[in-house]
UniProtKB/TrEMBL annotation:
Keywords, ordered alphabetically: Metal-binding
Domain HTH cro/C1-type: 11-38
Annotated protein name in UniProt: Winged helix-turn-helix transcriptional regulator
Key word Cytoplasm present: no
Amino acid sequence: MIFLTPREKEIINLLKKNPGMSQQEIADELNITRSGVSAHINNLMTSGYILGRGYILREDTYVAILGGCNMDISGSTFDNLKERDSNPGKIEYSSGGVGRNICENLARLGVNTSLLSVVGRDDAGKNILTELNRINVDSSRVLITDGITPHYLAILDETRDMYVAISDMELIKNIDKDYVEKNRKIIENAEFTIMDTNLEEETLDYVLKNLKGKFLIDGVSTKKVMKIKNMLEKIYFLKVNIYEAQALSGLETDNIDMLGEDLISKGLESLVITAGGQGSYYFEKDFKMMRKPREVKILSASGAGDAFMAGYAYGLYNDLEIEERMAAAEAAARITLMSSDSCSKDMNENNLKGEIYDY
């Protein structure tokens, strides 16, 4: 919760009437110094009440997303893939990254979002930020620094299945303790914060142990989810697939009930385990539920897990009951599965509700 001083309230009221007011005009109106106005403006920006340049006011609640942005490059062949040879085919570029994907889906669903991430001073970084600004994501706190924007390069075979991939995520190390501290109030004043485990373990540890708020975590992979193994009691909600759940629990079993109950017993407040055709399983202390999947014509599975997390967060943000939250998560995943893009352009509130109820 943000508490404004009387002077800050006066400044906000002036900016509501005229967002284009200069600091000197505000100073003249309130009969204070320009340096005094500057100090108040800086405080309002730090606390997240003013978003970005031009004094865009945040009057509603919002969700913070702390995670990775990257440029995805995929190459697919027209014929059978031949090793150690030049293969005629198609190369495609798209913005990606788990945190960025979740953020885009939430923004398309009408949720106010503030993205905390990092990009390089290159064309890839510029393109990512331009796309985010186009869908009204607050990207004013994305760190722009020297180095290459994180990239994910995938070579697909003739069936469009991934044959080999290379990821260059070195820049994400810049999302460190200092960056978190600079954005502490953005995180603590959010309704909740979503993080992905592409972040450094030290960063995840610092946020979970030192900042206040509700934290939702996307497991990402069996290796990366291990970063949070000793911090489960700090996590409000975790989304993992069955393989990530096995890795995190240490249990060699396909029994999803056993996996879920074990992770909850280790301190998690709430948990979803997704299991493809088996459905999705929700757990919290003394309560669990399972939902069977609905049939869907799959065009691409890329980004479906990110959309599931966004759909669940949409439900939480709108105070939906758990049954409705799960339905929203599954609907968002289905919309993405029916798209060739990792973030479907058809993702919006009307389509989400239609996917939930119109069957």
